[in-house]
Amino acid sequence: MAKKLKYWFDRDCAFKIATAIKPHFEALNIEEYADMVEKGIDGLELKDRVFVMAQALRVHMPRDYKKTSQILHKSLGPTLETEEGMFSKGYWLMPVARLVEEFGTDYFDISMDLCAEITKRNTSEYAVRPYIELDPEKALDFMKNWAGSENAHVRRLAVEGGRPRLPWAKHLPIFIEDPEPMLDLVEPLKTDPSRYVRKSVANLINDVSKDHPERIGELVKDWSTIDHPYTQWILKHGTRTLRK
Question: What do you get for the CA distance between the two ends of the chain, in Å?
């Protein structure tokens, strides 16, 4: 039987994180960090285990968040060469993203840039959401730039991070009420060459359709005139709730 995802976040994972950081932060005590994680995760489910690991990591990193972010950036390792590998290779970075999510909001620009780097190895779709809530306009400026990235993982983050009803995440009422900023953001991605990105666009459209079916009906009418298989694939998958 395959190992449940929550059990990937254990003492061994703590060692993996700390071992990656140690060359860039000599003061990190790997054993103490791993001990704190091991004591804290017992009996917890996935999200809580990841939070314990992030919280323990913050304790063991420099008090200066700017220094911590620089060290973490250097510790991320190589980027994924394909659209796969987020969990098979980059899973161990989930606590790092959670650290940014929980402890970095006073350093908006630094944290958003770090999210863009993390997502090239794992995902930052949850980490960016507090920043969207904190300053939607500023966050959208970052996300629009990400949408134009050459890296498919970063383009996906631009969309997935702003999904109004992202599963297993706190909803974004600002985009539930007014989805236009996100619909504008995905407009250039309607023929994106990456299936990974297209799936995220389709999921966002499906999210919006639950609250604004008429608006998505207008989008379908508009995009249906585009003779491109990628666009038609997005429309098919993005209107699955409307077709039920």
Answer: 35
3-state secondary structure of 106: coil
Note whether 184 and 140 are within 8 A (CB): no
Cβ-contact 105, 130 below 8 angstroms: yes
Q: How far is CA 12 from CA 9, 198, 211, in A?
A: 8, 35, 43
Q: How far apart, in whole angstroms, are the C-alpha atoms of residue 204 and residue 164?
A: 7
Round to whole Å and give the CA distance between 54 and 145: 27
**How much of the chain is helix, strand and coil, in % rounded to 5?**
65, 0, 35
Report the candidate in 229, 143, 242 with the shortest Cα–Cα distance to residue 186.
143
pLDDT in tens, 166-220: 999 999 999 999 999 999 999 999 999 999 999 999 999 999 999 999 999 999 9
Give Cα 28 distance to the centre of its chain: 26
Q: Both tokens of residue 36?
A: 């704190």
Show the tokens assigned to 22.
């140690």
Question: Among all chains, which residue has been given the structure tokens 């699955």?
Answer: 240
